[in-house]
Amino acid sequence: MAATGPSLFVASTLVTSMAGNSGRNRCLSSFRAMAVSADQKSSPATVSTRSTENGRWLEEKNRKGRKEEEELTSNIYSNPQEITDEKGKTLREYFQECKDLMIQSKAGPPRWFTPLECGSHAPDSPLLLFLPGIDGMGLGLFKHHHKLGKIFEIWCLHIPVSDKTSFTDLVKLVERTVRSEYKRSPDRPIYIVGESLGACIALDVAARNPDVDLVLILANPGDPLRMAFENVAKGLMPHQIVGELTQDLVAMSSYLSVLADMLPRETLLWKLQMLKSASSSANSHLHAVKNQALLLCSGKDQLFPSEEEAQRLYHMLPKCEKRVFEESGHFLFLEDGFDLVTAIKGASFYRHGKYLDYVSDYIPPTPYEFKKIYESNGWVLAVTSPVMLSTLEDGKVVRGLAGIPSEGPVLYVGYHMLLGFELAPLVLQFLMERNILLRGIAHPMMFTRAKEGRMLDLGSFDTYRLMGAVPVSGSNFYKLLSSKSHALLYPGGVREALHRKGEEYKLFWPEQSEFVRMASRFGAKIVPFGVVGEDDVGELVFDYNDQMQIPSLRTFIKELTEEVVHLRIDASGEVSNQDVYLPGVVPKLPGRFYYYFGKPIETKERKEELRNRERAHEVYLHVKTEVEKCIAYLKEKREEDPYRNLMTRLVYQAMHGFKAPVPTFEL
To answer: What percent of the chain has pLDDT over 70?
Structure first.
């Protein structure tokens, strides 16, 4: 995670910004609510204060270190309902900042600045350049400065209202900055976030610099302001048409009121013409853009057909992903429900080097991100009322996760329910109860596609990535264990999660050991576990065998399977059948989910012994047997649970409160 550096004590009316070429050396005082130049910010001055304790002077940083240590030992995820919402700045504040900035910086060339809210960042944080729309303010990430500043070095481009730098010269200015920073840190990616005109500049810069590692993040790309600006150009002032405007246009109206107060009509016309030429230039160079790109588009953009434009770019850019925010309007970056940092993390677009490292580049969810995930999955916990059991060192079985090892590396190996029903309660409960983040080792279909087709959009799996899932591979497994992570592994994989009728609670593990020798290499504890309850929430009525009897569905299964990366191509038996299909499930009145974590199996003192394949295979079979025992135990004990049925649980909660834990069988 990005480290937090010392606070910067800066007067609210002072900023040093960077103008001209690459913008690293020329500084001037101008804007309010903005901070030091990137050149100064990369190595900020530290302010050290002292306090006395028992007659001794202690550096402030030592007290800060103790506080951070205390925070690490507390669980910030334990009560998601009590996590406060993130209060972002309002549109009114945004418009006021724009107006103030217009007044204070009418003259001068385009320049870079770093907003005060960005704070300090880790030394190895990647650089993020924000390129504004046709307004040129550079404040488009107004609501995101604080969170972005924790993981990026932020430079925003400001184009003064009276400046008439051409589109071509703006591209050259950004290009000079890009090449200068690339020369300074050739192994560090440079992110370019652009909207409207800024998106066009970003695409042209990328096309002209194929050797530079640029990551493009484009919001509602296209000519988004054309309609409204043309109204202004024709003399239709915003207040004359407010009554006919939708929510998007009302927001645009307020924005244009600010512009109309400050910009002469001819300036607006000039900027509009520049936007048209920018779009033309960007479209003509799309074929040369080979960079990684993330398109962010709004599902309810009533100013511009953002989804259609994003889809067009998606098919033209070879390393492109897109995310559609169905409930958002045109002003995506300014909406309360949109979080740019969450979008970047969820899409696995955050990296420090040339290649993404799913382990070292991962940033755990913030408390608020966790709260949103908890709220979206809260119904699963409510209707299944999970019972979790663990085993203490002395072999005693207890309710809760007290028997789970605190220190990693730990490898959890268990049974995969149909469609992975067990995952949400499992991962959420580990964070809430033990402050342990389970790093799931997942199928590559959640991260990439062999080809485009009918599979779920990759955005459907963003929550899994946000919660730490990594694509299955030997290198990722190695990195998780070497970093002392708590890793979650399902040896049965797709075959187990997409089982057939009558196969619930049956393990489909490979014949040969896949994880024991790697676990022993790092002395990882192996925790076998079982889960039951899928047959209490739904009945599988239309399975793989049924669907393969129907020609059209057989073709559909074949197409789905061809879209995903194939695993275990050298395996034999049922586990080698990696066909992807959509099970037909009839819901039931929900029963209950039960989880049982067996006694941890130590490998720390057996590293040399388990290098022997036969010995390792014996441990592998032992783990499998323990998982089967856990499942058998739960299937038997749930019959004794008086609250297995949803209705009895609701009656209990009505009497004792809906937050009261519901009892279960005797242990």
So the answer is: 82
